[in-house]
């Protein structure tokens, strides 16, 4: 019985190490199988990607690399051929509104204290209408005194004339000499001269008193009022009122040197004040004879009849029609700009990107007019030009300019 236990113990002690060894071997086999499967799967993925990308280049890659050459993936760009059409040549400009003819009105006489102001800014006035009056009590007394002096001079003249008439009746009878007649005639003439002097002095004082009433030199619109009752004014006080003669307005549009050469007197223009959608029609009445040396711009003055929406000093935009031209029109997405100016990218017959500098004209909802730089038969990159560089090779895809897709 003891021998049996010893043999059983020996058998148990031998079988236990053998089972652990086999388990380790099985685990190693599984790891090797996993590694082999992973390598195979990775190789298959690489091959699939290779064939996928090679096939993805498709017909375009073959066209780019040549039928027998290596396949290349080139960017596809949308191009348009704008053509040329008759386009209304409209020049856009901006500027300020002002009175066409400003009339500053100030004190014409010796001045004094303002008694009344009879108008306000925005009022219409007629020629000669009183705008304000200056206190004139002293001047009124001076006028009254001068008028009395005239009456005195006239009385002296009447007396001298009566004495001369009586003397003329006595000279024929010999009661008075011719010398007395001459003296009385001279006295009469002196009295008449004093009447004229007194009358002139009266008229002068009346004119001075009349200048105390500040009047409008011509009919127009009151733009500014710088006078208030009680204010003491003189000839050096500056303009108390500013009038727009006839209410006429103008817009001083700032235009480029090249645009100015294409304008002429009488061209029509549409004015839109800033902040409103109301438009006003006008005509160019004056073109600046000089160009600003810094901005390289000139001024086109557009005459406007007065309407309530026009306020001098305000800002406005103008659309000036100067005939029509045959020119290409491009969407805004096709035109780019940098320090050198405006440009577009065109695609050469060899499908190479090329920069083309242009001069733009009017800009509107329909697009941008190209005045110089394009003939209209070029393939122009419609969009994504910012991602291209001159010299790049691309695959052009022509698209109608009117297609929004």
UniProtKB/TrEMBL annotation:
User: Where does it sit, as one GO cellular component term?
Assistant: efflux pump complex
Pfam families assigned: Beta-barrel_RND_2, BSH_CzcB, RND-MFP_C
> Which terms in the Gene Ontology molecular function aspect does this entry carry?
efflux transmembrane transporter activity
Q: Where is the CzcB-like barrel-sandwich hybrid domain?
A: 111-237
Q: In what residue span(s) does the CusB-like beta-barrel domain sit?
A: 252-321
* Transmembrane intervals: 34-53
What are the protein's UniProt keywords?
Coiled coil, Membrane, Transmembrane, Transmembrane helix
Q: Which residues form a coiled coil?
A: 150-208
| Residue ranges constituting the Multidrug resistance protein MdtA-like C-terminal permuted SH3 domain according to the UniProt record | 329-382
User: Which InterPro entries does the record associate with it?
Assistant: Beta-barrel_RND_2, BSH_CzcB-like, MdtA-like_C, RND_pump_MFP
Q: Specify whether Coiled coil is a keyword of the entry.
A: yes
Give the similarity note: Belongs to the membrane fusion protein (MFP) (TC 8.A.1) family.
PANTHER family named among the record's database cross-references: HLYD FAMILY OF SECRETION PROTEINS, MULTIDRUG RESISTANCE PROTEIN MDTA
- NCBIfam families linked: RND_mfp (TIGR01730)
This chain belongs to which protein, by name? RND family efflux transporter MFP subunit
Top-level taxonomy: Bacteria, Pseudomonadati, Pseudomonadota, Alphaproteobacteria, Sphingomonadales
